[in-house]
Design brief:
The protein is 42% helix and 16% strand. The chain is of the alpha/beta class. It has a five-stranded mixed sheet with strand order 3-2-4-1-5, with helices on both faces. The N and C termini lie far apart (36 Å).
Length: 137
């Protein structure tokens, strides 16, 4: 029985590790799609606006969530710790504010759905009509 449970646990971990991550924006955002480079620049603080020049409100997943590390690796090529260090420097110099850390996909989705200038990332299975997918990683 233990081997069956262990096998199921490993299978579930493999499925979640291969889950698609999507970058989402508010449906009112004029950006039909964002490139990986644009998302990277936004989440590394080197771009402070969307391509149309409108401001950006960043949403982040919890530090302990696996999706956070996967997102930063796929979107920026950096680890979550490296991105955190980048934001510490940006914040220290007064040049920006780090992404708002929320508790779950549902919270990120609600944040983005409620703010026309918001951007976040969630598991693709959590997408619904309240948000628009701007990039699939």
């Amino acid at each position: 029985m233990r081997s069956v449970i262990a096998g199921l646990t490993l299978a579930l971990a493999a499925v979640s590790a291969n889950a698609d991550i999507v970058v989402i924006v508010n449906p009112k955002n004029p950006a039909a799609a964002l490139s990986a480079d644009q998302v990277s620049a936004i989440y590394l603080g080197t771009a402070t606006t969307f391509p149309d020049g409108s401001g950006v409100a960043l949403a982040d997943q919890p530090e302990a969530a696996g999706i956070r590390g996967d997102f930063y690796q796929k979107a920026t090529g950096r680890s979550a710790a490296q991105v955190k260090a980048t934001w510490a420097r940006i914040t220290f110099t007064g040049k920006g504010t780090p992404p708002k850390e929320l508790k779950s996909d549902a919270d990120v989705k609600a944040f983005v759905a409620g703010d026309a200038k918001a951007i976040g990332y969630i598991d693709s299975s959590a997408v619904d009509g309240s948000v628009k997918v701007a990039l699939k990683l």
